[in-house]
Specification:
Blueprint lengths: L8 H20 L4 H4 L1 E6 L16 E6 L1 H17 L8 H28 L2 H36 L1
Antiparallel strand pairs: 1-2
């Protein structure tokens, strides 16, 4: 498996969790950062009512704040870099732990999506789906690090 250099792991991890905290803050509270980032952008699906009042089919220029979009890119890229950077000691067992952690994170994410489907509705459901956009990266990073720490503890005890 091709992985990134291990030098990227901890800076990307710090950016990943820091940007997650900023994202949670911006969703939870009144976000003043949106006003700074307002720019005109070309939208494929505009804000005006179009097909059945949904905005579908209304292409054109609109002014919007790009803070959420930029934050999403930072979270996803830093999450991928943190997830797929090699460890200082990368062996077959580390690769196995990585694969098992990724599989478990994906299974857990979609099990939670199915459960959330029956308990969240309207805009709450939309916020939950946004959370599940980032959940696989968060769960994989946490599960992988915990399993790796357990592996290192067992190795130290021998």
């Amino acid at each position: 498996m091709k992985l990134l250099n291990h030098k990227f792991k901890w800076p990307a991890t710090a950016v990943f969790y820091g940007s997650l905290l900023i994202g949670i803050y911006s969703i939870s509270f009144e976000n003043q950062l949106d006003e700074i980032w307002k720019v005109p952008v070309y939208s494929l699906f505009g804000n005006e009512s179009g097909f059945l009042g949904t905005g579908l089919g209304k292409k054109g220029w609109t002014e919007t704040a790009l803070f959420n979009e930029i934050l999403t890119v930072v979270i996803v890229l830093s999450g991928f870099i943190a997830s797929f950077s090699r460890e200082k000691v990368e062996d077959e067992l580390t690769t196995k732990i990585r694969l098992e952690s990724l599989s478990f994170a994906i299974l857990m994410n979609y099990a939670l999506v199915l459960v959330a489907n029956f308990f969240f509705f309207d805009f709450a459901y939309l916020y939950v789906l946004i959370a599940f956009l980032f959940a696989p990266l968060i769960m994989f990073n946490l599960i992988f690090q915990v399993r790796l720490l357990n592996y290192y503890k067992l190795d130290d005890e021998k």
